[in-house]
Each structure stands twice: as C-alpha cells, then as structure tokens.
Specification:
The structure holds two protein chains of two kinds. By secondary structure, chain A is mostly helical. Chain A is built from four helices and no strands. In chain A, helix 1 crosses helix 4. Helices cover about 35% and strands about 30% of the residues of chain B. Chain B starts with a strand and ends with a strand. Classes of the chains: A mainly alpha, B alpha+beta. The interface between A and B is medium-sized, with 14 and 12 residues.
Chain lengths: ~90, ~300
C-alpha cells in the first residue's frame, strides 16, 4: 500500500468535505475532475492548491501545470514526491 | 389587506449540546416538523432534499438546515408562482464565519479558501433556495437582531398584499461554543450551546384544503417597558383584531426547546401551527426589549 496515496485520500476527503466518500472507494488512477471520477470543480482545485501548500509546502507556480498534476490522486502523489520540501 | 394564509411549514432543529441543568435527558436533540408530522431522525436525509452532492458538501450546518426547511415548504409549489423568498437571521452563519477567520490566522492572511466566506453571507440560504428551484422573484434577508423574523414575516405579508400568490418566509440561527460563551457573559445565551434551528412558512393568498392558518398581523415594539404597559399594548393589539388575550392561545418564545434566541419566533410559529387552534398569539420579549406579537387563526 502506498502510504502517501492513502494519506492524500484522507486529506482530500477532509479538505473537500467529501463526507459520503471512503478512502478505499477512491481509485488513485481515476480523474479527480469532471465525469468518471470524484466530479470535483474549480473551487475544489483552489482547495487542493491550499492543501499542497499547507501540508507539503508546494506552491504551484505555473497554473498550466495544474491540469496534469491534479488529474488523479496518483499524479498528485508523484508530483509531491518530486517536489516536496518537507513532508509533515 | 388581502387574506394571508399559511399553506405549509417546516422546522428543523439539530442541537448537539445544551448547557441547561434542567435538560439531563439527552445531550443531543433532533426534530423535523413538516406540515404537522414529525420526520423520524433515522428517516431524515439531507440527500433526499438537497440532491446536488457538490452543493451539499460545501454547505455549513445552518445553510443546509435552512435550505432544507425552505425546500420542504416549497415541495410541489410551482416556481413561477413564488413571488418572493424572505429570510431572517439574527447572527448568521457563525460556524462558516469562524472557519474562515480561523483559516485567516492559520494561513497568515494568505491563500484563503473562499467557500466559508461565501457561505457566511446572510443571504446564502435564500439565494440557494432560489437557485435550486429556479425562482427569480424578490429575494431578501433581514438581519434585525431580535426582530429579524418579524421583519421578514411583515415583508412577506406585504408581498402577498401587493399581489404575490405565494411567498416563502423563514428564520434561522445557529449557536457555536465560542459565541455561546460570549453570550453567557452578556447574559443573553440560549439554552443550546451548539446546533442550528431553521423554521419556514409558506404564505399564500389562496386558501386551500391544506391551509393551516390565516395570518392576521405582526406587531413589534422596541424598548424597556413596565409589564403593565406591555400588557396594555398587547391587549390593544388583540382588541384591534376583534379578540382578547384571555380567550386566545398564547405561545411564548422562551418555551421552546432551545430557549430564547434571535429568530425563535420562527420556530415557535411552526410549533404553534402544530399544537395550537383558533386565535393564537406568538408572544416574544427577546432580551426584555424586542417585543412582538404575531396573531394567527389556526384552522
């Protein structure tokens, strides 16, 4: 089990108030936004940016990168592994 | 003045804790009173009333409760017949405000999430109801402390008088532990320490087989007066509507489960519609200075 992915799922559920969602129900490869995934929207994207900054000290400097980074829990975890200053 | 009927009502009370020593039966309380029936807690589901999951998960507890109570009242009512949504709150959305302010401190006044800020504005409930139901008519929220609901109800009655077919009117407030602590120091804390209460009524110019009451008047008077002076004012109001206080039923705003709070008259009105009959007064003396009388004829 990938610890970072499991931790990210719990953080997303808490930050986005996904009260009807269990961590095990989130497919790490499924898209976070739009149809076929969690169905998140642009307000959630802002909350995820805050989550990365608060918990991993990562600032998304280039907004164009956001679409690829936030595609799924898996892509977010990869980005954190490559860019995290310190993992709290 | 045109006749103003109450054709529907909904009251949602969800309280997590009381501070009153006389309530040792339970630390938590939930009740949903909808058009005369109590919906059991285990069959009450916000998902059935507010179906959009993304919208629902961003709502704070009071927003969810207020929107649900308003939507229950409007169930089966065509959106184009609704001439207005008039809401009232004394203190507004405290938990969202606290969340936003705590985030400001935690994040050093930068990188703030806008959701709790947007959801903490007073018109949030009225605007959500309008957007969910596609109602484009008059939409107003009164934040008049102890007279908030009375102001909203008066406005709703005037809309009916001006020709609206139906108008939704409601009052809602919540309590959080920090605010409760402050109100205790000020000597005006309600019994409930944490929770939210939303009461809505559907006013109509048309009497139907489902009409619960006819609403006659909402009167307010502000200031500190002797009990004798207040009693004379109440008697004069009753007499001007062809009744007297002795023969009418009276529901006091400090008798509800919550104890007095700023929009208590909304929940007491719903309780009166369930339990009262005939000429009935809702009597409010919030903080000894917000005096109001709501007169209705319960059918």
């Amino acid at each position: 089990m990938d610890e970072l992915i499991e931790k990210l799922k719990k953080q997303l559920i808490e930050a986005l108030n996904l009260e009807e969602m269990e961590p095990e129900k989130i497919d790490p490869e499924a898209p976070l936004f739009g149809e076929g995934g969690l169905g998140l929207d642009s307000i959630d994207a802002l909350e995820i940016i805050l989550l990365l900054d608060k918990n991993y000290h990562i600032k998304i400097k280039n907004p164009a990168e956001g679409k690829a980074i936030f595609y799924s829990v898996g892509t977010m975890a990869d980005y954190i592994r490559n860019h995290s200053v310190s993992d709290k | 003045m045109r006749h103003c009927y109450i054709n529907g009502y909904a009251l949602i009370i969800s309280v997590d804790g009381f501070d009153s020593v006389d309530r040792d039966d339970s630390k938590a309380f939930f009740d949903c009173l909808y058009n005369g029936s109590h919906v059991p807690r285990d069959s009450f589901d916000y998902k059935k009333i507010i179906s959009d999951g993304n919208l629902r998960r961003r709502m704070g507890p009071l927003v969810k409760s207020g929107v649900a109570a308003g939507l229950l009242c409007l169930d089966g009512v065509p959106s184009d017949s609704v001439g207005g949504i008039v809401t009232a709150t004394g203190l507004g959305f405290l938990s969202d405000t606290e969340r936003f302010m705590n985030d400001m401190i935690d994040r050093n006044e930068s990188m703030l999430n806008p959701s709790p800020f947007m959801q903490s504005t007073f018109n949030t409930v009225g605007s959500h109801i309008a957007m969910i139901r596609g109602i484009h008519s008059y939409n107003m929220t009164y934040v008049h402390r102890g007279f908030s609901f009375e102001s909203a109800l008066s406005d709703a009655m005037m809309l009916i008088d001006e020709g609206a077919e139906t108008v939704l009117a409601g009052g809602f407030d919540e309590m959080t532990f920090p605010v409760h602590k402050l109100l205790v120091r000020l000597g005006s804390a309600p019994k409930f320490q944490n929770g939210e209460i939303s009461g809505f009524v559907l006013l109509s110019s048309i009497r139907t087989g489902n009409t619960f009451a006819e609403l006659h008047c909402v009167k307010t008077r502000y200031g500190h007066f002797s009990e004798e002076n207040l009693e004379k004012w109440r008697s004069d109001v009753a007499l001007s509507y062809g009744t007297d206080l002795e023969s009418a039923g009276i529901f006091d705003c400090d008798s509800s489960v919550s104890g007095p709070y700023m929009t208590d008259s909304a929940s007491v009105l719903c309780n009166a519609l369930e339990k009262g009959s005939g000429k009935t007064f809702i009597r409010n003396d919030f903080c000894g200075k917000n005096h109001s009388l709501i007169l209705l004829d319960i059918l």
